[in-house]
Structure to design on (589 residues):
């Protein structure tokens, strides 16, 4: 065990109070960012992060209401920034603000731009306050910052900001802001969101200085060490409770199903988890090689590590069982990640990474499947992955861009059905209200409903996906990244696999049709519509063990049909919607 023993003494009550204050600061930063932002991807979907990090690059607290894929990487952003500044011989001063989005130096991917404020206390650098957010456009080949699935390298994905000063000692670095406005579509929205990020990070800095003033630097730093050590003990205890051994799983992503090159489609993600005492090694050996000219590669720091840490933490330290768990650097200390250089999960620069979202979520699902071998009652069956569409167009020579995250679904769990039509695992964003979409954009949502009669049957059924139809009211275009068309979510403990995703473009000229999970930028005309079918989660447990009354409730609610009740669950439902007990017993027998 590597728990520190030399930290100054501080009582546990004071340490807990300071930890609570740190968490509240991060949450306040997040809410301020939401309310100051311009774009719906931050304001409504909550695709942002906020956090506090110490001078060693260790996470102290993160905003609980934001997505783990945004808040989790913030310590990596800080470490990447520190490394780059050190290589240049640059130092930080009060009033500085650093912009950073380098996917090979801690950032999640290029569109997730971080703004980092160094926190000085009595002229001493003591911490960092940082925000991240997904931006609608970052200056890539085609409009939008998602759905860019054909970038040949990192330079084709948009602007790269490698520890760039946007404020220097309190003064705005004007040329940088000119570059931003001149090279980014929808720059009013994007730059407005960036300024909101800076304001939120500055609020975090101010609150942190107030907190240190209240308790003093020595007590504050001792409390941070105390709480990180506490989180480490919790994780080590959870790992130690597992039997030693190696637990492995492999799942697959679509890749590019319409690509003639077999090396670009049906790609394995391999995970082997070795538990030894109170430590864990997560080995990704066997994962497919990186694709040098396709952007579904996943940054090791910022995407892969977050997918692993989030899944392990969620399974082993479920807050429903353990209560509140302080999220900080201590949780990740007992976990080592091994990823061969040059694989999808550890690409070599300049391999592109902008479309790493869905593969990373599938990696988290693979970690879940591996953990199922050692903690079967603590996992869900296979999740239905997500899809992102960048809707774009021109009006009076001005771009409009909207990024829509289409939710997936969870697999069944021990004692509970899977959750319907929600973002899964490390995503955790919200959907955009239809009213917001239709009031701001030349789009109409003609259909938004649960996908009926398709879910993984089990004692605990998988969650239902959703169906959405978007109609263009003006000419425009779209770019799409997604997963799960080829490989359905996995069933567990006798449960059935879930339902695959689907996507169709219905054109007014009749020339549309079914699409693969990834679509490079494609022009569309007014009246064209995308029909998006979400995947359904895998089932957990033998479907014949499901309570007939639960099956009846699903039939009554219109979630499954009478035929499905009989064929998948062995439950016979009469025409007047009642369980035929005798016929059910005979059929199940």
């Amino acid at each position: 065990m590597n728990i520190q023993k030399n930290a100054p003494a501080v009582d546990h009550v004071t340490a807990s109070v300071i930890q609570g204050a740190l968490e509240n600061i991060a949450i306040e930063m997040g809410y301020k960012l939401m309310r100051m932002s311009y774009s719906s991807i931050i304001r409504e979907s909550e695709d942002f992060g906020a956090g506090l990090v110490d001078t060693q690059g260790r996470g102290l607290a993160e905003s609980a209401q934001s997505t783990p894929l945004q808040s989790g990487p913030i310590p990596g952003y800080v470490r990447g920034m520190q490394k780059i500044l050190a290589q240049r011989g640059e130092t930080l001063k009060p009033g500085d603000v650093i912009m950073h989005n380098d996917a090979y130096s801690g950032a999640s991917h290029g569109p997730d731009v971080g703004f980092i404020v160094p926190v000085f206390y009595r002229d001493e650098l003591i911490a960092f306050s940082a925000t991240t957010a997904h931006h609608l456009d970052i200056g890539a080949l085609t409009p939008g910052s998602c759905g860019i699935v054909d970038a040949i390298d990192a330079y084709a994905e948009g602007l790269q900001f490698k520890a760039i000063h946007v404020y220097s000692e309190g003064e705005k670095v004007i040329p940088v802001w000119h570059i931003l406005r001149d090279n980014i579509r929808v720059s009013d929205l994007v730059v407005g969101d960036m300024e909101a990020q800076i304001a939120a990070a500055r609020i975090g800095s101010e609150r942190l200085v107030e907190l240190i003033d209240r308790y003093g630097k020595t007590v504050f730093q001792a409390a941070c060490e105390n709480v990180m050590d506490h989180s480490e003990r919790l994780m080590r205890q959870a790992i130690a409770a597992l039997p030693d051994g190696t637990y492995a799983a492999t799942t697959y992503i679509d890749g590019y199903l319409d690509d003639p090159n077999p090396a670009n489609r049906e790609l394995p993600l391999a995970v082997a988890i070795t538990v030894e005492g109170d430590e864990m090694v997560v080995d990704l050996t066997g994962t497919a090689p990186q694709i040098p000219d396709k952007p579904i590669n996943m940054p090791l720091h910022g995407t892969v590590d977050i997918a692993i840490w989030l899944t392990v933490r969620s399974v082993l330290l479920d807050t429903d069982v353990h209560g509140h768990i302080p999220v900080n650097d201590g949780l990740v200390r007992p976990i080592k990640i091994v990823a061969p250089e040059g694989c999808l999960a550890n690409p070599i620069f300049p391999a592109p990474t902008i479309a790493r979202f869905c593969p990373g979520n599938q990696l988290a699902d693979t970690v879940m499947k591996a953990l199922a071998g050692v903690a079967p009652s603590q996992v869900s069956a296979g999740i239905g992955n997500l899809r992102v569409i960048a809707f774009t167009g021109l009006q009076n020579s001005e771009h409009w861009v909207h990024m829509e995250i289409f939710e997936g679904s969870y697999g069944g769990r021990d004692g509970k059905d899977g959750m319907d039509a929600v973002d899964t695992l490390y995503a955790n964003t919200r959907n955009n209200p239809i009213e917001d979409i239709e009031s701001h954009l030349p789009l109409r949502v003609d259909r938004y409903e649960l996908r009926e009669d398709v879910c993984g049957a089990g004692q605990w059924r998988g969650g239902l996906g959703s169906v959405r139809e978007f109609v263009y009211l003006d000419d425009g275009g779209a770019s799409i990244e997604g997963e799960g068309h080829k490989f359905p979510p996995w069933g567990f403990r006798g449960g059935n696999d879930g339902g695959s995703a689907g996507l169709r473009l219905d054109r007014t000229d009749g020339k549309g049709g079914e699409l693969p999970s990834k679509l490079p930028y494609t022009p569309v005309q007014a009246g064209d519509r995308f029909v998006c079918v979400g995947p359904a989660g895998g089932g957990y447990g033998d479907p014949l063990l499901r309570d007939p009354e639960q099956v009846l409730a699903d039939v009554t609610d219109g979630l499954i049909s009478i035929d499905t009740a009989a064929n998948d669950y062995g439950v016979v439902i009469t025409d007047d919607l009642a369980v035929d007990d005798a016929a059910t017993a005979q059929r199940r027998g």
User: Anything to note?
Assistant: Residues 380-546 form one domain. The radius of gyration is 24 Å. The first strand starts at residue 48 and ends at 54.
